[in-house]
Amino acid sequence: MFNTSKAYVRQLKSGEQYELSQPVYSLNLVNDIFEPNLNNEYYHYYRLVHMEHTDRVIEGLHLVFVELPKFTPHNYSERKMQVLWLRYLTEINEQTREVPEELLANPELKKAVNALEESAFTDAQLAGYEKFWDIISVEKTLYGSAKEAEKKEWQKDAKK
Fold first, then answer.
1. Which superkingdom is the protein from (predicted)?
2. Residue at 131 is within a domain
């Protein structure tokens, strides 16, 4: 709760409007059982709700807890995904220089790795990164257009 609140507060600089703040989601993987009365329920989602009028919610802080001991995959595919995500969460950090290939082979994990890399960029690095991909996109478009024009020219010559 403490860290989630800090993340929420850090969004705004002094004097900025509160309306600019975005919700903060805290994902907590717990290697323990803290809701023993909720038998096989391993996923717990908490937010700030009015006690008497539960339809009244204060948006902002969202806390998600996953009790790992209660999670039991039903098949090999689920077990493999569990292991891959746990590896991602435990092996990837600011000292990581090379991501294991088996993590990058999974599209969801590759997307998570890319998002993590982008989140570490400074504003200048992010602008450069986006410019790089814009240039690549333009080059691909120009190349595709040239190939299409070449193909039409070849078809025109073939009909002669």
1. Bacteria
2. no
* Contact (Cβ atoms closer than 8 angstroms) between residue 50 and residue 88: no
Place of tokens 């009028």: 53
> What's CA 138's distance to the chain center, in Å?
26
User: What is the per-residue pLDDT across 30-61, written as a single tens digit (0 to 9) for each?
Assistant: 889 989 999 888 899 999 999 999 999 988 89
The one-letter code for the residue type at 90 is T
- How confident is the model at residue 53, as a pLDDT? 95
Residue 69 DSSP class = G
Q: Is residue 96 part of a domain?
A: no
Does residue 36 fall inside a structural domain?
yes
Phi, psi of 158 (to 5 degrees): -65, -30
Q: Number of folded domains in the chain? A: 1
Other C-beta atoms lying within 10 Å of the C-beta of residue 35: 13
